[in-house]
Amino acid sequence: MRKLIVYIAVSLDGYIAAEDGGIDWLNGYPNPENNDYGYARFFATVDTTLMGYKTYQDVLRLADTFPYPDTTNYVFSRSPKPEAPYVTFTNGDNIPGLIQRLKAQDGKNIWLVGGGELNTAFLQHDLIDEMIIHTIPVVLGSGRPLFAGTVQKTFKVKDIKLYDTGVVETRYER
Ligand SMILES: NC(=O)c1ccc[n+]([C@@H]2O[C@H](COP(=O)([O-])OP(=O)(O)OC[C@H]3O[C@@H](n4cnc5c(N)ncnc54)[C@H](OP(=O)(O)O)[C@@H]3O)[C@@H](O)[C@H]2O)c1
Question: Domain Bacterial bifunctional deaminase-reductase C-terminal: where (predicted)?
């Protein structure tokens, strides 16, 4: 069965973005061609992306063109949005039902891109099969957390990789 995977970069203190949504702190850890932190390999294993509306807005802001034109892309928002290229907006009323439907289809894995608010909803519904977390050796002090609220789930560590840059990649399985 296809898996639902979080692949994300996190500060030492568990934030995925600064308070204002900024991700400048990631600039010191670029994804050069010879060290993309496994991104190309990972991306080749997915055919569907899921993202919260704030992450979607950032993706559009940061890229000249939408970066995932060849995958099926769902953007979660509680309010109706006008149609946009490459994405389907969904209100998140029945996240478990949507994921059950997607997983029942043939295909590659599903990437839960983020951000933290959407990650939290998926964790609450226990829908995350795997997480590939890149821990950046930077303390932000405040920001938008990888997960928020009081949800508690346990994961098994399956693999750890240390990059020359000091970034640690940890693969967790539920
Ligand atoms: N470090 C990394 O690798 C990484 C990865 C991804 C994102 N980010 C950053 O994370 C930040 C965004 O994270 P975030 O936690 O603030 O926001 P987010 O999860 O990306 O988006 C939040 C929005 O998504 C919608 N949403 C969330 N949960 C929903 C649900 N259960 N049902 C329906 N809609 C739902 C709502 O949109 P509406 O308000 O429209 O209803 C909500 O305001 C950005 O700065 C982004 O750049 C960093």
Answer: 2-167
DSSP 6: E
Position 134 in a domain = yes
Q: Please state, in angstroms and rounded to a whole number, the distance separating the CA atoms of residues 172 and 142.
A: 24
pLDDT, tens digit, 9 for 90 and up, residues 53-89:
999 999 999 888 899 999 999 999 999 999 999 999 9
Atom 39, ligand 1: residue with shortest CA distance = 77
Residue 73 token pair: 């892309």
The residue segments making up the domain with residue 112 are 1-7+33-146
The residue ranges of the chain whose pLDDT is under 70 are 32-34
For ligand 1, mutation pick of 42, 54, 62, 88 (most atoms within 8 Å of CB): 54
Strand partners, 161: 169
Query: Does 53 reside within a domain?
Result: yes
- Report the nearest atom of ligand 1 relative to the CA of 7: 3
* Tally of domains in the chain: 1
Residue 16 resides in a domain: no
